[in-house]
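User: Study the fold:
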Amino acid sequence: MNKNESDIQEELNDETLAPFYKRSSFIYLTIACLALIATAVAAVFYKNHPDLDNISNIADHDLRAGGYKAILLLDKGEKFVLSDVGKGEITKENGIRILENPGGELRYQAQDLAGDTIFNSNQTAMVYHVIKTPRGGQYKIVLSDGTKVWLNAASSLRYPDKFNTTVREVELKGEAYFEVGEQDSIPFVVKSSLQKSLVTAGHFNISNYADDPVTTVTLLQGHLELVSVNKSKKASDDLTPERVWLEPGDEGWVTATGLKLVKVHPDESISWKNGYFQFSNADLKSVMREMSRWYDADVIYEGDIPDVKFNGEVRRDVSASAFLEMLAYLKVKFKIRKNDQGRNEILVRRQRNN
């Protein structure tokens, strides 16, 4: 239907009465201005980040992010390769069914399915299992007492198939996040090379990599007693005694000379479990250590490395080259390559000034 003159005039009157920011002419002008601003910002960003011109040169070949993979070792030498597929029951031992569930989970379950925890008799020898994640792997395990453990890359956990009624004790190398439920006030203990953490129930993260300068214990929920097990007689002045108690939000730093207690944002310590790298004023070598473990690549430094800090969050499912693109502003050049032995390497060198 064609519009008559009165209809057209009515529409013109409506537009005249409309607020200025709703008029079509203003909208078009706004879009044009925003486009110009975006172009200008992009130009400034590009000028200040010349490395972005060479992003395609970062990798001879790219590296995929890690995933769910681990190896389970039983006490008699049996070995099971674990993945995210989920094969169901993989073995039975001492009244316990061991299940590989989809999504990267290993679960210890009583054979009778009654739901009750089966404890080992204090007169019976303990049977220990070990789960190991390679570089580029992570895995979740539900222990026989219901404790949930998320194991980060390049880590291992040694634990009994059944705990006794005196103490629930495991040994950790690398990093893991624990969710421990109370079991008749039986303490749960995590031992590593420098520390021993004791809880009756709680949520906490322990990072204990051999190539990190300190072991960190971060409490998210509950109460935790942290004990230094390798205290030197020459303790630094700013270190606390060899035993401290943590409240939620506390993080213990453990070295060969003692303990130090600091306040942190505890959720940052488990960002890896939630699918992110989280960096807060991290130096370049700290960032590259995490990259090395997750992307299964050796890091090679050429020349002196600038003292730069990185703050930010990076998803753990991105490729290695995408991760390195986000570090372009650090005035550092990166190159992903294979060495003569076929190992993946990330070459790191200072950016040359033009």
Notes: The chain has a mean pLDDT of 81.
